[in-house]
């Protein structure tokens, strides 16, 4: 005689011929292994809850934190323009570890929902486009 137990996507075969104490001890050992904490990085409400999550202001970067991150390697400051892949933009990689999206201020620009990062520079989704202003 045997019994199949289904627990947490695992199966356990318990023989009914086992003495009572051995049966309980083996069941207890199995449950202690199966109830371990499984590591995941999903947000509390699931992956789709990030869509509704409130955005925070993107991280500061550049000299004296005068700029804002516009991507993992892009730092833009009003008076200095944008630097890509430079030491000033190094702190922008930390934004990837924050589970909620960030937003920068500035005027909307471009056809793909970009934001003005510096005079003549429009950024969106980690891409930078130089746009010359018409006079």
DSSP summary, beta strand count: 12
Mean model confidence by pLDDT: 68
Q: Which bin fits the share of residues in helices?
A: 10-25%
What is the general shape? elongated
CATH fold-level label of the largest domain: Neurophysin II, Chain A
Number of helices: 1
Say which CATH homologous superfamily of the largest domain is assigned. Answer: Neurohypophysial hormone domain
* Structural Rg: 27 Å
How is the biggest beta sheet arranged?
4 strands, antiparallel
CATH class of the largest domain: Mainly Beta
Distance between the termini: 88 Å
The strand line-up of the biggest sheet is: 4-5-6-7
Question: Low-confidence parts, pLDDT < 50 over ≥5 residues?
Answer: 1-16, 35-39, 130-135
Oligomeric assembly:
single chain
Instruction: Count structural domains.
Output: 2
Organism: Hemibagrus guttatus
Protein name: Isotocin
Transmembrane segments: 12-39
GO cellular component, one term: secretory granule
Attribute tags:
transmembrane; single chain; Neurhyp_horm_dom_sf; disordered C terminus; disordered N terminus; amidation; 2 domains; 4-stranded antiparallel sheet; 135 residues; 11% helix; mainly beta; hormone; Neurophysin II, Chain A
